[in-house]
C-alpha cells in the first residue's frame, strides 16, 4: 500500500476528515457521476455506487483511489439525502423511535487491482419531538447527509445506541478500510 499515492474520490468533508485519521497526505478528486444503480439489496447498492464513482475517476499507475457511498435503510426502504426541509422533517419523523441500518460501500482501486466491500451499522433512534427535529434541521441544515442527520454533530442526541462501526455511519468504515488496504 505504501508504494501508492492515495486519492480520495469524494467531495464529502466527513470522508476527508475520516481519511485524515489514516493518512496525512492524499489527493482529493470528486466524481460527478450520476448515482444510478441496478442492484436490489442495500449492501449491493452501496458497493455498486462506490464502484461507479471509482470508475468515473481517471488514475495513473502510482495512485490508489478510495471511493464510498452511504445509504440509510429503514424497514428495507432506502432513505437517501433529503430534497428540502420538508423531506428532511419527514425522514427524521420516520426514523424516530425505530432501528435503521446504515450501509457504506467502499471501492479501493489501482490501475491493475480493485476491491469492493461494505459495512453495516444498526442505529437505534430515540423518540424525537417535532420541535427538536425542527430545531435540528434549521440549525444544522443536514441536507447533504443520507437520512438527514449527522451522527457526528447534534444528530448524536437522536441516537440511543448503535451496533457496529460509528465511522461507518459518518461515511467511511476506517477500521475495515485500514485492514483491507493492508492486504490489498
Ligand atoms: C448517516 C450519515 C451520513 N452522513 C453523510 C456521509 C456522506 O457525505 C453523505 C452520504 O452521501 P454519499 O452520496 O454517500 O456521499 P456524498 O455525496 O456526500 O459525497 P461523495 O459521493 O462525493 O463521496 O451523508 C454523515 O455525515 N453522517 C451521518 O450520520
UniProtKB/TrEMBL annotation:
EC number: 3.6.1.9
Keywords: Cytoplasm, Hydrolase, Nucleotide metabolism
A GO-annotated cellular component: cytoplasm
Primary location group: cytoplasm
Active-site residue numbers: 69 (proton acceptor)
Pfam families: Maf (PF02545)
Catalytic activity, as annotated: dTTP + H2O = dTMP + diphosphate + H(+); UTP + H2O = UMP + diphosphate + H(+)
Annotated transmembrane regions: none
GO biological process, one term: nucleotide metabolic process
Essential cofactor(s): a divalent metal cation
UniProt subcellular location: Cytoplasm
Annotated site residues (Important for substrate specificity) in this chain: 14, 70, 152
GO terms assigned for molecular function: nucleoside triphosphate diphosphatase activity
Stored PANTHER family: BIFUNCTIONAL DTTP/UTP PYROPHOSPHATASE/METHYLTRANSFERASE PROTEIN-RELATED (PTHR43213), BIFUNCTIONAL DTTP_UTP PYROPHOSPHATASE_METHYLTRANSFERASE PROTEIN-RELATED (PTHR43213:SF5)
Primary role: Nucleoside triphosphate pyrophosphatase that hydrolyzes dTTP and UTP. May have a dual role in cell division arrest and in preventing the incorporation of modified nucleotides into cellular nucleic acids.
Family that this chain belongs to: Belongs to the Maf family. YhdE subfamily.
Name of protein: dTTP/UTP pyrophosphatase
Organism encoding this protein: Tepiditoga spiralis
Lineage per the UniProt record: Bacteria, Thermotogati, Thermotogota, Thermotogae, Petrotogales
Amino acid at each position: 500500500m505504501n508504494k501508492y499515492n492515495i486519492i480520495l474520490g469524494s467531495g464529502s468533508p466527513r470522508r476527508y476528515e475520516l481519511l485524515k485519521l489514516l493518512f496525512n497526505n492524499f489527493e482529493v478528486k470528486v466524481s460527478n457521476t450520476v448515482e444510478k444503480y441496478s442492484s436490489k439489496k442495500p449492501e449491493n447498492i452501496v458497493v455498486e455506487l462506490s464502484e461507479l464513482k471509482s470508475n468515473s475517476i481517471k488514475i495513473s499507475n502510482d495512485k490508489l483511489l478510495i471511493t464510498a457511498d452511504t445509504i440509510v435503510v429503514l424497514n428495507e426502504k432506502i432513505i437517501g439525502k433529503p430534497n428540502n426541509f420538508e423531506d428532511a422533517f419527514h425522514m427524521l419523523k420516520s426514523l424516530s423511535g425505530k432501528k435503521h441500518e446504515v450501509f457504506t460501500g467502499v471501492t479501493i482501486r489501482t490501475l491493475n487491482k480493485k476491491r469492493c466491500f461494505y459495512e453495516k451499522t444498526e442505529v437505534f433512534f430515540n423518540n424525537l419531538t417535532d420541535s427538536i427535529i425542527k430545531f435540528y434541521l434549521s440549525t444544522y441544515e443536514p441536507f447533504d447527509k443520507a437520512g438527514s442527520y449527522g451522527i457526528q454533530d447534534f444528530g448524536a442526541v437522536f441516537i440511543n445506541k448503535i451496533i457496529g462501526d460509528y465511522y461507518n455511519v459518518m461515511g467511511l468504515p476506517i477500521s475495515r478500510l485500514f485492514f483491507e488496504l493492508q492486504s490489498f
